[in-house]
Amino acid sequence: MPSLDRGIDLYRKGQFDQAIGELTEVIRLEPSNALAYRFRGSAWFPKREYTRAVADYTEAIRLEPSNAAAYSCRAYAWFVQGQHRRAIADSSDAIRLKPNDADFYSNRGRAFSADGQHDKAIADFTESIRLDPKATKTYIFRGNSWLAKKEYDKAIADFTEALRLEPRRAETYVSRGIARLSLLNKGDYDRALADFDEGIRLNAEHPLAYANRARAWLFKGEFDKAITDCSHALRLDPECAAAYMSRGEAWAASGRHDKADADFRKAELLLKRPLVPVLR
After folding, report:
1. Which of 148, 171, 255, 269 is the most exposed place for a label (fewest CB within 10 A)?
2. How far is it, in rounded angstroms, from Cα 248 to Cα 242?
3. Residue range 20-50, pLDDT digits in tens
4. How far is CA 16 from CA 7, 12, 40, 69, 231, in A?
């Protein structure tokens, strides 16, 4: 006999195909079981079957329109498909139904940020932090929104708090290094380098850590070191446009214009737009 509990247990164990099969049988026998639709929707996610996930979440909402979790799940399904306005709408419904859930604000903030509405994103992240001040990821999300607004000191403060909560997150060191580098203050180049060094120590396979450390070397006039870091980033990720761009600038500053032009052309192809390199 099919069992909802067994289907949910299979989902939580990561046995997604089996979970889908079990939950499908539950739905066949109980077509008004909203929870079965919601969990089957979530089981489609690891298979990247987002259209099916949306369909299941939509049916769960139809059956149980006061269920905030179903709106939040569908919001995330829209988000990963790049449909940010729909994600915002569903997250807003989730918040309306359950206004004290920190994750719902954080998720809507991510959708606002992806839609370029950074002020609204920051407001949502701030409310999420008020509700859950130990959520590391939300400080990182808000820090990235401050970066997008070029509010670098505020970005640094958020990344620093995230690192206080979770000091072994390589990507957070890299993000703080980028914010410090963006200040274009010579006193911060060394601190940016220290952040990139720590990010690399924690994760030696992080291409953007090398690519951004290369930019710090560029600003300090250490062109050979910049070239070395960019080349390492490209070994890790041959499509890292930032590494081609920075290496091109380093080659140009070193008088190797043939190599610089080749790297700039590659960066243009990856970014699909013309580049005007500027060495500061």
Report:
1. 255
2. 10
3. 999 999 999 999 999 999 999 999 999 999 9
4. 9, 8, 9, 20, 40
According to DSSP, residue 206 is labeled -
Buried b (16+ CB within 10 A) or exposed e, 231-258: ebbbebbeebbbbbbbbbbbbbbeebee
Query: Within the chain, what is the greatest distance between any pair of CA atoms?
Result: 74
CA angle 140, 142, 145 (to 5 degrees): 115
* Percent of the chain's residues with pLDDT above 70: 96
Which residue, 32, 2, 1, is CA-closest to 19? 2
Provide DSSP, 102-149. HHHHHHHHHHHHHTT-HHHHHHHHHHHHHH-TT-HHHHHHHHHHHHHT
The Cα 144–Cα 257 span in angstroms is 34
Tell me the pTM: 0.89
**Ramachandran angles phi, psi of 166, nearest 5°:** -140, 90
| Segment 113-136, tens digit of pLDDT | 999 999 999 999 999 999 999 999
Residue 172: CB partners within 8 Å, gap ≥ 6? 136, 140, 159, 162, 163, 166
Ranges assigned E (strand) in 128-224: none
Alpha-carbon gap, residue 175 to 212, rounded angstroms: 9
Q: CA neighbours within 13 Å on the CB side: how many for 63?
A: 17
| Of 185, 184, 157, the residue nearest 175 (C-alpha) | 157
